[in-house]
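Ticket 4471: requesting a sanity check on a complex prediction with NDP. Repro inputs:
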Amino acid sequence: MSTVAEIFETMEYGPAPESDKEALSWLAKHERVFGHYINGAWTEPGKLFDVVNPATNKTIARVTDGTADDVDAAVKAARAALPAWKALAPHARARHLYALARGVQKHARLLAVLESMDNGKSIRETRDIDVPLVARHFYHHAGWAQLLDTEFEGYEAIGVVGQIIPWNFPLLMLAWKIAPALAGGNTLVLKPAEFTPLTALCFAEIAHEAGIPPGVINIVNGHGETGAAIVNHPEVDKIAFTGSTEVGRIIRKATAGSGKKLSLELGGKSPFIVYDDADLDSVVEGVVDAIWFNQGQVCCAGSRLLVQEGVADKLVAKLRSRMEKLRLGSPLDKAVDMGAIVAPVQLDRIRGLVQQGVNEGATMWQPSWACPTDGCFYPPTLFTDVQPSSTIAQVEIFGPVLVTMTFRTPEESVALANNTPYGLAASVWTESINLALDIAPKLKAGVVWVNSTNLFDAAAGFGGYRESGFGREGGREGMWEYVKRIPPNTSRAAAKASDVHRSSPIADRQSPAATRPSPLPAIDRTPKLFIGGKQARPDQGYTRRILSPSGAVVGEAPEGNRKDIRNAVEAAHAAAGKWARATGHNRGQILYYVAENLAVREQEFAKRIDAMTGCGPRRAKQEVDASISRLFTYAAWADKYDGAVHSVPIRGVAIAMNEPIGVMGIVCPDEFPLLGMISLVAPAIATGNTTVVVPSSPYPLAATDFYSILETSDVPAGVVNIVTGDKDPLAKVLAEHDDLEAIWYFGARDGVKAVELASASNMKRTWATWHDRSWLDLGDGEGREFLRAATHVKNVWVPYGE
Ligand code: NDP
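Returned structure tokens:
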């Protein structure tokens, strides 16, 4: 045995094992066999599957594989518990969440050890990162529960929430899901990943002890089919999922048209960008945290190292020498950096992708030391000579594998960083704050860390763009995922769409102006499509007749098709960068100008609306007046929809920036042909998006008249593109378009379903609803709900100080 003096010389690590005694006795208490936790009680064990410690390949427990009946029982329990939980005073729910936070802290070490045994991650991480963050989430959300009525006035719980989580942060993902759901007044059914169910079961026990009422939290274990049973259960009102993009896409399709609210936190291939003025020693430690934290099984892992050419060789040399010193071994050893990969199947996947990287010509490097052979271990791996289009540069490996590429200019770094279908996170390393804050907004990512990486906190939202999913977890932005707007009091709503446009056209009409015979034949006015700031003839050369309710011809509208949509999307893209960079003041000025020009032509628009819809001159005027007011609303918001600075526990700030989504498709409601369109287009462009608009199918002429207003109001070409025609086929083309980042659809239920299904192709964000809206009502027809739907929140973490 070495003496202290010898150890002082060699600085060798000795063993530093964490005791597993408490965890083993907790497992023994349950005879290592678990049922589900439903309605406040453990169910009898059913068909069991093994839970294996990946560091030893030994079975440590057996857990019940949930059936559709189990899921049904859990959903019924959650439904039964909902009214009482939702009706609790916010303060009472806050106390429950507080009790959960306390419970997690009281059992912190047990949870940390269990997590390491179940998942293979090091005790250093579970003890110092996962479990403290879990407690932090419950404390933070105890706060939102307390403030719910005042901070989310006019909103209420969504109902029963189905939550499906992955194996990489089992307890932390549970906390990210359960804490906001409970704070919002929802009840829930959660399925842990099959590889890692134990801490969720331990948490159920803690919740039970903490006095959470039966049925509020239900934990059902199982495989993918159990998850699918939750997704497809008709009495589930919302699905929150974290996992692979592949399963996210299945869930998007499965919930399409069901009315279930959905948030998806999916995969990533996040860039870690190093500029030549960066502090390279800090960068090396950053890389260790970015890709070897949790063995690289992190959705936001900095798995693509992009280095400015001049410092690439130096950085790679530094990284290799650091990798030689990383320690890999038993997850319960307090002095290891890396533990085990979660399961043999994941190990095989990593091996397969690394081999593919080698086959495709990249240079692979691993440290000289050997991994233990009796568990699922994989060494840290570094690839150089990587082509941006190669498999290892594009596919999420979800293992400790880093690929390196170089760039010359900041512009090139952004292009390379965004060369991925994902958009979850990014790290930017430079000593120039000027450069960092210039680059951060240009990165397509929901989170950007400046000179740091993998920082998480309950106060700051986390979530992605594009194929990384949609929705945020954490912070105020995450709470919006768990509340819904209370429908306005119908008596307050001045008029519902159905009341207005389906009413008799004759009653309050005085002169059906548009159909009145005139002494001279009118000059033919053939509306066209409006694409890229120009009037454009429809590709297929057809128009459709627009008739009044009495059958008179009011005008003709072009019949747009796939090619017209394609051209419109191209035009919207061409305008996107500049419009997104325009100041809020500038966008506001343009919206005011649109309103001004509409006001000048108020009577003309009112006549047109009346002629098409037969709603009567009074209602038509009301619609135009409301449209002008709505334009004012969003002109006002354009420089006021501020982000936030989150209070995260670091020396620095997390800046939550509201960013435009990009190019959006907007499929307008049939009713209120002018107001419906303006209510959607104005918030979209006020926040910096460019749009392809499909106006009301039966009443498109308000939109075609409107483009002449856009032409004269300084709206830049391509910001608003209008394609008239048959709404649902056009909506489908938009939803399938891979270059469109979001689609809003207001129409029939079948249309909603088609749009949600088709949007799964590139996981674009959807806002699709078939419910009637009271467009004239200020609560229902305008406001923050629209602004939120038109923006992403990007959290930029900026630590400071030496
Ligand atoms: P999955 O996406 O398959 O699993 C995530 C969760 O969804 C698990 O609870 C899983 O259950 C469940 N699930 C699986 N199929 C369905 C379904 N049809 N309907 C509802 N729920 C379902 O991830 P994997 O665990 O299979 O990992 C595969 C790959 O996904 C990884 O290699 C990695 O690349 C990526 N991944 C990304 C994560 C992220 O956070 N971005 C997290 C985990 C994985 P069960 O575990 O029982 O199959």
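Notes from triage: The pocket of NDP is lined by residues 164-168, 191, 193-194, 223-224, 227-228, 231, 242-244, 247, 250-251, 266-267, 299, 346, 349, 396, 398 (CB under 6 Å). Leaving this open until the requester confirms.
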